[in-house]
Amino acid sequence: MDFIARVLTLLSGDPQADRAVPPTGYTARLTLLTSGAMAFLAVFALALSLATGRLADRWSAELAQTSTLRISAPADQMDAQTLAALEVLRTTPGVADARALDADEQRALLAPWFGPDLPVETLPIPQLIEVIADGTGYDTAGLRARLQAEVPGAVLDDHTRWREPLVEAASRLRLLGFVSILLIAGATGAMITLAANAALAANAQLIRVMRLVGARDIYIARAFVRRFTLRALLGAAVGTAIGTLAVLLLPSTDAAGGFLTGLGFQGWHWLWPLTIPILAAFVAFVATRQAALRTLKEQS
Amino acid sequence: MIELDNVAYSYGGAELFSALNLQLAPGSFHFLTGPSGAGKTTLLKLCYGELIATGGQVRLFGQDSRSLDRDSVADTRRRIGVVHQDCQFLDHLSVAENIALPLTVAGQTTQAADLVDLLGWVGLTRQADQLPPQLSGGERQRAALARAVIMSPEVILADEPTGNVDWEMSQRLLALLVELNKMGKTVLIATHDISLIRAAKAQVSARVLRLKDRRLQLAGADL
Question: For A22, which of B78, B88, B92 is closest by C-beta distance?
């Protein structure tokens, strides 16, 4: 409560104290522009982080439950081996469902490489069976042994080979997103510190006069801190609004179906950007306060 | 109130003065004179905590200035009104706002009637809403004096307050300082204007100190 009261006091300010420090044009514009641009970038870093997080979770969940059985056999044995494999899968504990992909589905899988009108029926391509595990999963080694005995042309791919790198890559992307946000916050702090130092240097005479009449350091610092905090809050709010709008206007996943088009927010995640202006204001508050108190100490 | 005990001050390896003793008793009136560069302004700065003595002890209201933290120095300055030769105003604030600045930074409310009275006392009622650069030299000095006394300080330190004004205005400023002294304020004026000192001695019991050859001496009857 005390913290909230102090924040409200800072935001409401002291009109008399505010009058004492004249507005400085270019540092004001620099702070507004910097916090706005950084907030814009932070929205995308946040969207990337959240999207890759969702992607990692989805891939991890989906791929952990599905696997593919590939049957390579002469054309006259293909149907028999497919039926045999389905029978093996039906009687395997831990397999919830298994179904052979029909010609249209196989054609759709190959379409990105061969186009939409591929005559899959005339090509010696393997038959694919999608295997869905139940919550407990199945014994992969046991299933492979049974398939080797009963369906010699079957190869079980439980996706482990490429699932793990994909999930790891997505997790790394999520981490990179968060690191980017931290770097953006750090860069914002550095730039606001520079702007605050410039403002303090430009107001050296004002500081001398304020001290002469008995102003404490914290009183002088507060006048600068409040101004920079509010500028950062305003700039970041505008940058966040524009960034969020840009994310909103990205093509939807449904329309384009690609990985990158999944970048964005879903559900309550749309509330996350609201934290960016608050974070920017907090960074500005800390950066300006440190810069002001350090400068005032050095000037004494 | 303000005591300097065997004080020395060096700057850049050179000793400006040493073995300096001074006591500003409540209600006293002192002049500090001496040639340019003798250290009058430095001595005043030691008296309001702007500088720290390199030797000896400066006690401000009983406290060693060396032991005061930054907030305490600020609080001490609220008990000492300072008038500089160059006045030092905030040029974007009006004369009235500049005069009320000590109250503002102390978080105290400015009573409009008191401010009007103070402006009237220094003869700046009509200039209240003007900006400092619009004032003449004498008006600036009077505004600086008004700012120095608005907190009703116990001590008033003035550094060449008549340096930039004509004789008539210097007499007017002196009259204000004498009036403050008669109200019980301790006054120390640094000046090289001997005629001002002579004029003052006709109105008030003032001690005249001379800073010369790195020592503080009591000036004799030649003044």
Answer: B92
Per-residue tokens: A78:
């293909």
Q: Which of residues 45-104 of B touch A (CB under 8 A)?
A: 70-71, 74-75, 77-78, 82, 84, 88-90, 92-93, 97, 101-102, 104
Give the list of residues 6+ apart from residue A134 with CB closer than 8 angstroms, or none.
Answer: A94, A95, A96
pLDDT for B37 beyond 60: yes
Inform me whether the pLDDT recorded for A257 exceeds 60: no
How far is the CA of A273 from the CAs of A48, B109, B204, in angstroms? 12, 41, 71
B56 phi-psi bin (left φ>0, alpha ψ -120 to 50, beta other):
left
Q: Where are the domains of chain B?
A: 2-218
What b-and-e string marks burial along A130-161, b requiring 16 or more CB atoms within 10 Å of the CB?
ebebeeeebeeeebeebbeeebebbebebbee
C-alpha distance from A6 to closest chain B C-alpha (Å): 16
Chain B's closest residue to A20, CA to CA, is B93
Of A17, A205, A214, the CB nearest to B74: A214
Please state, in angstroms and as integers, the Cα–Cα distance from residue B25 to each residue in B56, B155, B185, following that order. 19, 10, 10
| Spans of all domains in chain A | 2-54+171-299, 73-152
pLDDT tens readout for residues B174-209: 888 898 899 899 999 999 888 888 888 888 888 899
Instruction: Give start and end residues of each alpha helix (H) in A213-274.
Output: 217-248, 253-256
CA–CA distance, A59 with A164 (Å, rounded to integer): 9
Going across the sheet that includes A127-133, the strands are A95-100, A127-133, A66-71, A154-157
ipTM: 0.84
Neighbour count for residue A9 (Cβ, 10 Å): 12
The whole-angstrom distance between A35's CA and the closest CA on chain B is 28
Class of B2-218 per CATH?
alpha beta
Tell me the sheet residues that pair with B10: B15
CA A162/CA A48 separation, integer angstroms: 22
Number of neighbours of residue B12 by Cβ within 10 angstroms: 5
Virtual CA dihedral for B99, B101, B107, B111, nearest 10 degrees?
Answer: 20
**Backbone Cα Rg of chain A:** 31
Q: What is the mean pLDDT of residues B3-12?
A: 89
Q: Are A18 and A187 in contact (CB under 8 A)?
A: no
With CA atoms as reference, report the closest residue to A163 among A53, A84, A62: A62
B55: which strand partners? Answer: B8
| Cα–Cα distance list, B209 to B1, B30, B161 (Å) | 17, 7, 17
